[in-house]
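Retro notes
What went well: the complex prediction finally ran end to end.
Inputs used:
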Amino acid sequence: EVQLVESGGVLVQPGRSMKLSCAASGFTFSSFPMAWVRQAPTKGLEWVATISTSGGSTYYRDSVKGRFTISRDNAKSTLYLQMDSLRSEDTATYYCTTHRYNWFAYWGQGTLVTVSS
Amino acid sequence: DTVLTQSPALAVSPGERVTISCRASESVSTGMHWYQQKPGQQPKLLIYGASNLESGVPARFSGSGSGTDFTLTIDPVEADDTATYFCQQSWNDWTFGGGTKLELK
């Protein structure tokens, strides 16, 4: 059974940093590109970042370029999202998800990030 | 960015047929996918490539369309289908529609 378990979401002040993790199991992690998708409270879904199987290629939405860094450790089957210079508009539940071609096949339960002073 | 537009909400009775629409601001060919999100849960993939049913998803769900206009159909609707349904395009990066909240009468 595919499992994606996110962690690291907390309350943080604007301008600070935090790092999310996603532990994967039940599939060959290194064979799938991975992504982070977020959902602000009572809002829709928003793609944040994608990383290739090797980690050699990364893609970001414009609003997080230069502030967020997606990475992966295939030996640990873990996906990461380093978030710097956080803003109030980054407040959301962050989901870890697998790419299957160009859609998102499996999703974690999400971790809530709240940016507030 | 490719903008996806969905109607905000629909209300139907169990046993009826419901169609949920998604319109793209530019052609996305068949790069359209559908997800179901129940309250307090993560999204779940239903349809990929506009019309392909994800494994394990009931055959009551179907998708159609190409270019800019797409439809998710549930026939017949069951009480458990109460959820918000999102479309997502993959032709130009990855963007989602605002979601359609389906309520049962």
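What we learned: Chain B has a mean pLDDT of 97.
What to try next: split runs per interface for comparison.
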